[in-house]
Each structure stands twice: as C-alpha cells, then as structure tokens.
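Class prep. Sample record?

___
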Amino acid sequence: MTPTTVIEIGRNALEITLLISAPLFIAALVTGLIVSIFQAATQINEATLSFVPKLVAIFITLIVAGPWMITMMTDYMRRLYESIPAMIG
C-alpha cells in the first residue's frame, strides 16, 4: 500500500462524510435562519425556541434522507472491502 493509496482512501472517506452530513447541516441551517428571523421580528430571546425546531427538522431530514445516507455508506464500505486484495497484492 502506497502513501498515495492511503491519501486517496482518506479523501474518499472525507467526501462521503461530507455528502452524508450535508442534508442534516442544511436542514439545521435553514431552520435556524427561519427561527432567528422569527425571534428578531418578535423580540423573543429563548434558547429552546431555536433548539427544538432544529431537532425536529434534523429528525425529519433523517427520515427522508436516511435510506440514501445508508446506501452511500454501505456502497463506500463495500468498495473499500472489495479493494483490499488489490491494495495488499
């Protein structure tokens, strides 16, 4: 196994991690922005007001995007395990 192979495996792992986490981060970001605008308009400064909607949005995103996320993870792991013989020999 060469250093280039190790770097490529690490890069692929980071790409998959970013792809899988992106829907959750986007849902939390959009929800936080909407709640912040609501808080600014109504002058309500409550910390739990922003936490609970984000939690609900992330949960709904997990339900919707969960199968895609699992497919991405299993495909990456399958490719990684299938490439072990080529890396060793």
About this structure: Helices lie at 3-42, 47-82, 84-88. Residues 18 and 73 are 11 Å apart (CA to CA). The chain has a mean pLDDT of 92. The longest helix spans residues 3-42.
